């Protein structure tokens, strides 16, 4: 744990452009990204089952999606980052920096929506690596959070795969789609980041993929090997 005797806090997250090997993170621009997100990344009304565990009601069309995304940015301070596949140029998903607490160095990643084109590819892993790296290395945050509906097993599985630590269930935390939401909380912290970063970079290396684009080693296995070496 770092010495906090002279802690001054962190800057609040701002929209940022980050280039990766497989994916580019772009600050949300309504004129550029709204229609590609709705039509290309999420398949129009197919977005509703994709965002089953989001708290807002189902979208009736692009206008409702636009109104919601504009509201969470303006009223809740979400910083929306759009994921673009560098190989195809297509918009494939998004995530947001949320509930930033610069004074304590804490921020959450949420509103995560991966379109089908991100499935079974390095895109989602690299996107979240880049978002975490920006938080820890560029902004100097101490804690990076991931929260989801306790029934959202895919999200919980993804959080663990990425290296977030499960911290527990907050019972009756929110009302979501007119029902109760118990929330699963996960985090990664700055002291863990060097090992997590090394695992991400090992997994994302082109050498970790065969000629069919399939992984040779799982991210979890790389991380476990690095942790064993660190403890030796």
Automatic annotation (TrEMBL):
Domain of life: Bacteria
GO molecular function, a single term: protein-N-terminal-alanine acetyltransferase activity
The UniProt record lists the keyword Membrane: no
GO terms under cellular component: cytoplasm
Keywords: Transferase
InterPro entries: Acyl_CoA_acyltransferase, GNAT_dom, Ribosomal_N-acetyltransferase
Residue span(s) of domain N-acetyltransferase: 63-165
Name assigned to this protein: N-acetyltransferase
Organism encoding this protein: Rhizobium fredii (Sinorhizobium fredii)
């Amino acid at each position: 744990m770092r010495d906090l005797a002279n802690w001054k806090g962190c800057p609040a997250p701002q929209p940022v452009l980050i280039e990766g090997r497989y994916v580019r993170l772009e600050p949300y621009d309504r004129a550029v990204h709204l229609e590609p997100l709705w039509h290309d990344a999420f398949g129009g009304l197919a977005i509703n089952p994709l965002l089953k565990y989001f708290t807002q009601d189902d979208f009736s069309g692009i206008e409702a999606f636009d109104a919601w995304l504009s509201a969470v940015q303006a009223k809740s301070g979400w910083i929306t980052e759009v994921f673009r596949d560098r190989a195809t140029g297509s918009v494939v998903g998004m995530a947001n920096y949320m509930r930033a607490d610069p004074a304590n160095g804490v921020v959450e990643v949420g509103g995560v929506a991966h379109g089908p084109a991100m499935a079974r590819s390095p895109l989602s892993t690299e996107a979240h690596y880049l978002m975490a790296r920006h938080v820890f290395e560029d902004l100097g945050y101490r804690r990076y959070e991931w929260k989801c509906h306790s029934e959202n097993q895919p999200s919980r599985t993804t959080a663990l795969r990425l290296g977030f630590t499960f911290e527990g269930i907050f019972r009756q935390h929110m009302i979501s789609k007119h029902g109760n939401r118990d929330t699963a909380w996960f985090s990664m912290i700055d002291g863990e980041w060097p090992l997590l970063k090394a695992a991400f970079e090992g997994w994302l290396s082109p050498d970790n993929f065969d000629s069919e684009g399939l992984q040779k080693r799982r991210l979890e296995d790389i991380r476990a090997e690095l942790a064993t070496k660190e403890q030796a």
